[in-house]
Design goal:
By secondary structure, this protein is an alpha+beta fold. The chain has a 6-stranded antiparallel sheet, with helices on one face. 21% of the residues lie in helices and 27% in strands. Strand 2 and strand 3 form a beta hairpin. The chain has a single domain, classed as YgaC/TfoX-N like chaperone (Yope Regulator, Chain: A). The chain is built from 2 helices and 6 strands.
């Protein structure tokens, strides 16, 4: 089951205080970018964030899961608690680099 656009909009509203938010639909699910950095995966109306030492104190009681088959394990972010979600994101965001565009292969 793919995530609904309404749920993705709700996620964006909850984390809006964390910075500039945009989404990108990928493989039927969504990546949420904060200040141009890919931080959240929204899969099956569940929000995932990468496991990182910097946010482990915030996520000690969080569930873990796989956003899709073949993915690494992620924390499941409680998006209902907007302040907690923003705190987690603002802690992780400075540590994540902005992705560099991939070079296209020459033919």
């Amino acid at each position: 089951m793919a995530s609904t656009p309404e749920y993705v909009q709700f996620v964006c509203e909850q984390v809006a205080p964390a910075g500039e938010i945009r989404t990108r639909k990928m493989f039927g699910e969504y990546m949420v970018y904060v200040n141009e950095k890919p931080l959240l995966l929204v899969c099956d109306n569940t929000v995932y964030i990468r496991i990182h030492d910097a946010i482990s104190p915030f996520m000690a009681d969080a569930q873990r899961g796989l956003p899709y088959v073949g993915a690494k394990e992620h924390y499941v972010l409680d998006i209902e608690n907007a302040q907690h979600a923003v705190n987690v994101i603002t802690t992780l965001e400075p540590l994540v680099p902005i992705p560099t565009p991939r070079k296209k292969k020459a033919k």
